[in-house]
């Protein structure tokens, strides 16, 4: 085992073919999606999937998202009902993950779904993810490419920093457009349920299939047993967070939002001076990392409106502020 860091490769026909070959050989490859960078492995290869858990230091009962080239590939793995097909038609490729019953003959490693009889599937929109999936020709299991309990990576440099010595290569296509993980919807029961707010808003989904369960309950709601990803603390910087800050102390760093920023912080980064939640989402993880490294005692965080992507941002912030769990994901 060497401590060398994997190469960051620009996406070309050759580098994508090399990434597909690495996946076939059972290695891990980091690749961009429109949400965050993923840590990919051949989803049908138990050892490769286990390598994901090992690399992330993640508890193995935490299930992974299975990335697919198109809806037909999803139909082969899971039972898609009418609701699933409508959502797929509207939002795939895109930042939407659907939890559905596994088919009997589903070839995906059981370890990837942590032994559950459901599977989380998504068709990413990012062209590099799409080309890799096509070149590989099989499902790719991929959690966010960060060590367990750390922030999700929105650049290849973030991946290299946390997991560079655990992957064969990192396909580098610059910062991700959305910057928040995909929205996870559970369709395995009678009610469509929001398990994780993310890059696609609950409002957009509700406009297509009607009310979602779990939306008002929202943040930190007691649905943890159904989705281990809902464990309280997940996106954790090293420094403590103080939420809903209106003023700031001299030894605090400030994660600001909007045009009116209180003065006096040791370091301030503004998620969106214009108050745009989409811009704020794209900046969130990178800014938290920078403030985490600022030498401050604590990070004060201004409020973000609880609307659209603001809901997902607040969800991540509240989890980052929560007490650290025994089993972060
Ligand atoms: O944007 C994203 O979703 C990124 C990119 C790489 O696609 N992936 C990602 O994966 O965030 P990960 O593993 O960090 O988060 C997967 C989430 C977790 O909250 C997990 O608990 C939930 O999906 N999940 C996966 N399979 C599930 C299942 N069968 N039932 C319920 N929740 C599931
Ligand atoms: Mg993650």
Question: Could you walk me through the main structural features you see in this protein, from its secondary elements to its overall organization?
Answer:
By secondary structure, the chain is of the alpha/beta class. It folds into two domains: 8-228, Alpha-Beta Complex (DHBP synthase); 236-321, 3-Layer(aba) Sandwich (Rossmann fold), CATH 3.40.50.11030. It has nine helices and 14 strands. It has helices at residues 13-24, 46-56, 71-77, 82-91, 127-136, 156-163, 202-209, 277-292, 309-321, and strands at 8-9, 29-32, 37-42, 65-67, 96-101, 118-122, 140-141, 169-171, 183-186, 193-196, 241-242, 252-256, 267-270, 298-301. Strands 1-8-2-3-7-4-6-5-9-10 form a ten-stranded mixed β-sheet, with helices on both faces. The longest helix has 16 residues, at 277-292. The two termini are 25 Å apart. The model is unreliable at 218-234 (pLDDT under 50). Bound molecules: threonylcarbamoyladenylate and magnesium ion. The site of threonylcarbamoyladenylate (TXA) has 27 residues, from strand 5, strand 6 and strand 10. Magnesium ion binds at residues 143-144, 152, 329.
